[in-house]
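User: Please fill in residues for this 247-position structure.
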């Protein structure tokens, strides 16, 4: 399926979960605080801005935010929270679309770079970020660490999360570095709802090489937005890449 088909009206309506999940204050608060710090008083550009989960509170802190978004239903949800004058958005692919102006910060959160399904597209995403940044500008990526250590020989699927009313299952194609996330939601009836999304997973070292190809250097990497140490056991990372101050 194309990304436009995945992030349709139904997915957009179910995306926002105010106060819980990725919208929980303990998740969103540190994210916004760190991004505001990294913007350094300049303007920020969010790739795949979605429904404005991060952009709206970041703009509320006084950071001018512009977005790029492929899904019109996701953008419609954002427009219920902020108008075009408050948060301008360009409709297009984050690997190729161009936003006007120059930014001190480009950010891409919650594993979304993995929605680009080829290495070439992911490299172009880095290059697109570099095109929008001035000297010394930063590109921030939040991404999960591939969990292939969970795969016994011959097995291609793992349960990534389970709780009452929900099971998440990931199926892997290790040859192409692809994973499909299957999200099953259910209640007391006999019917369950399934949402699936394909991804191309990226190892941290591979991500660093993509950054180098686009003219970035790794500035920092932490396990989360609060600055926890990144270790071999970390399940995700927040990586900050920077364009040299003079080029």
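Assistant: Residues filled in for all 247 positions:
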């Amino acid at each position: 399926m194309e990304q436009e088909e995945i992030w349709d009206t139904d997915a957009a309506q179910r995306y926002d979960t105010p106060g819980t999940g990725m919208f929980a204050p303990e998740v969103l608060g540190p994210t916004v605080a760190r991004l505001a710090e990294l913007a350094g008083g300049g303007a920020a550009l969010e790739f795949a801005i979605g429904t404005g989960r991060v952009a709206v509170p970041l703009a509320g802190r006084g950071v001018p935010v512009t977005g790029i978004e492929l899904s019109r239903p996701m953008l419609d949800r954002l427009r219920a929270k902020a108008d075009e004058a408050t948060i301008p958005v360009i409709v297009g692919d984050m690997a190729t679309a161009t936003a006007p102006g120059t930014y001190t910060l480009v950010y891409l959160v919650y594993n979304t770079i993995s929605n680009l399904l080829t290495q070439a597209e992911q490299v172009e995403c880095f290059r697109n970020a570099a095109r929008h940044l001035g000297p010394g500008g930063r590109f921030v990526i939040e991404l999960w660490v591939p969990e292939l250590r969970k795969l016994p020989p011959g097995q291609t699927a793992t349960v990534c999360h389970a709780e009452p009313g929900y099971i998440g299952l990931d199926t892997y194609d290790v040859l192409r570095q692809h994973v499909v996330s299957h999200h099953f939601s259910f209640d007391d009836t006999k019917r369950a709802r399934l949402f699936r999304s394909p991804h191309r997973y990226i190892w941290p070292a591979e991500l660093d090489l993509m950054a180098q190809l686009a003219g970035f250097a790794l500035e920092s990497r932490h396990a989360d937005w609060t600055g926890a140490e990144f270790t071999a056991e970390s399940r995700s990372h927040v990586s900050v890449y920077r364009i040299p101050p003079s080029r």
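For context: The longest helix spans residues 25-39.
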